[in-house]
Each structure stands twice: as structure tokens, then as C-alpha cells.
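[Automated response] Your request has been received and processed.

Submitted sequence:
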Amino acid sequence: MRRTELNDLAAFATLTDAGSFTRAAGRLGMSPSALSHAISGLEARLGVQLLARTTRSVAPTEAGDRLLTVLRPALDDIAGGLAGLSELRDKPAGTLRITAFRHAARTVLWPVLPAFLARFPDVRVEVQIDDGLTDIVSNRFDAGLRWGDKVAGDMAAIRVGPAIRFAVVGSPAYLAATPALRSLRDLGRHRCIGYRLKSSEALYAWEFEKGGHRVQVRPEGPFVVNDEAMMLEASLAGLGLSYVYEDQVAGHLAASRLVRVLADWCPPNNGYYLYHLKRRFVSPALSLLIEALKAADPVPPGLGASTGAPGEAGTGRDLGV
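Generated structure:
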């Protein structure tokens, strides 16, 4: 295979991931016109149309999809082999692309990153905030950071954060003007602030557990938002109850700006896991970042690596307790 043809195949894979010539050209360090010329040349040599083009985006044709099923694993193997060679260097290098929940990025990843990047100046870290379970293979991420302990069979997962607890909170004024909240059944009579998942557009389900009994509640109320900070502001303003991370509201609870309810239904979960594709080569940069995350929060005995996958939060079901 000629070197130019291999370059064109790699460019084709990058283009399908990026979804546009402009974004792909930026990643490849070339002009959009040069990229378009390379793809047209590849299609001419293969004798098939690989892309369906519009004025705003591109998508693979059936022939393009068939090529990608063969091409992506081969490119991943090459990338893994090249990454393995960097172990021979004194310093790790390259770009790590990580997708994470906002809370995970803020509480687990960010406390480690400044020191990590200072220690390894040849490593570049790119973080994309997303509330869904991103397909790290098709979206070309090195790893994902989510809470939960179940991953797909082709993923490896390592616990890297402390246990996480959620809290249901409301303002004192709101709770004083509404029915008493003594059990989960009473939640149906309350206004709840909804959180719309950006990835699936479903409403995030409030998850509860007590005595081994797990329940998901579909929130109903006058306000829905897709921003955690605004959801919290809504509860502070007395619009209703919010389901939030416990650490987000510690200061408000201490200052009596918010009141916690149903605490006995909100036990801690296993915390955040970093997951990545199982493969022969894991880049030295990713290995070092994993070690830094584990060192920042040592995992209790019995809660190490998992073979199973953080899933996107459920969309909920009716209250059944």
C-alpha cells in the first residue's frame, strides 16, 4: 500500500468522526480543500462513493460504513503500537481525550490535572463534558469518566473516586408551604425540578435505595433545565425540590438556605470509574493518569477494577413503593 493511500484512509476515518471537513481538517492540520481533494482521490481509486455530503455535514455511505468496520480496528492497532513505543522515552507524550460528567471532571479529574500536566509537559489532555455514556471508540476518546460499576464486555474500568451520595433538597419557604415529606410516596405531591439529559434528551430519573429496594422516580414540576447550577438556583428560589450531588449543597445546608429530605433513601454509591477499551497497548500517558487518579483517592479493599459499565442515568419509571 502506498503511503499516500494510508494517509487518505486515516483522513477518511478522521472525517467521519468529525462530521465536517472543517473540523476534520483542523484535527489533521491541513486545509479543508486539501482534505476534500484527498477524499475524492480515495473514492476515485476505490471506485465507490464513501461519503454523502451536504452543505453542513458529511456521513458515510453504505460502502463507507463497510470500509470503516475494517479500517478503525486497524488504525487503533497502529495507534496502540506507536503508543507502546513511547514507553522507551524518558517522558510520555501525546494527547489524551477524555469524556466525563461535569461533576466527575470537577471533583475527580481537575484536582489531579495541574500537577499531572506539570510533571509531564509533553502530554496534552482534552476533556469533553457530557452527561451521557459516550461511545469512546466511535468518538475517538481514550477514556471515559462516569459513576457506576458496569461496563461493556470490551471495556476495562477502574474506580478512581470516592463514594458519591445524592441529596433531595428544597428551600425552607417551599417546604413550609407544601405537604410534609415523610416517605417516597409523598414525593408525588411535590414540585420537582427536572434535569434534561443533553445526550438522550430524556429526563434524568431520581434514584433511591433503602434496605436493598431500589426505586427510580420520574420528576414532575414547573421547571426543567439541563444545567446543574440553574437547577440548584431554582430550588434556592423556592420553585421546588432538586436531586443534586451532596457536596454541591453542603454549604447551603449548613447555612440553612436549603433543607434536606429523604436522606435515608440516598445511600452512597461506589463512586466514579475511569473506563477504556481493553487492548494490548494502553498508552503510557493514560496509565500514568490512572495511577495519579488512584493515588489521589485510594480505593477501599474489594472495590478495584471492574468488568462491568457505567451506564447513562435511567429515564425513570413511576413511583412504586
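Summary generated for your ticket: The longest helix spans residues 62-85. The two ends are 64 Å apart (CA to CA).
If you did not submit this request, please reply to this message.
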